[in-house]
Amino acid sequence: MNIENTKAQMRKGVLEFCILSVLKEKEAYTSEILDTLKNAKLLVVEGTIYPLLTRLKNDGLLNYRWEESTSGPPRKYYGLTEIGQTFLNELNGTWTELSDAVNLITNQKQ
């Protein structure tokens, strides 16, 4: 069994939750989102995040706006929609329950 594949699948499973969490306080453009994820040691490449952002937008969880940049092309800033905020709140509850259950199981003495 390939441990790297398993680790990648675990990261992929929480990536949507993490992206929505990054955007809960303020809008951000893709590079900011990537930097936040990388700073948290959640390694993500651009080829992964762009399709996910598009899917989240198409699902009505995110919206975006264009803003001119003084250092290059315009930037697309993403933010949570009202539906996205509700979805994130539900994910927070689910995450707490799941992490509590996993911690309980993995920290049991043999």
UniProtKB/TrEMBL annotation:
InterPro entries per UniProt: Metal_resp_DNA-bind_regulator (IPR052509), Tscrpt_reg_PadR_N (IPR005149), WH-like_DNA-bd_sf (IPR036388), WH_DNA-bd_sf (IPR036390)
Source species, domain of life: Bacteria
Domain Transcription regulator PadR N-terminal residue range list: 19-89
Protein name as catalogued: PadR family transcriptional regulator
Origin species: Flavobacterium bomense
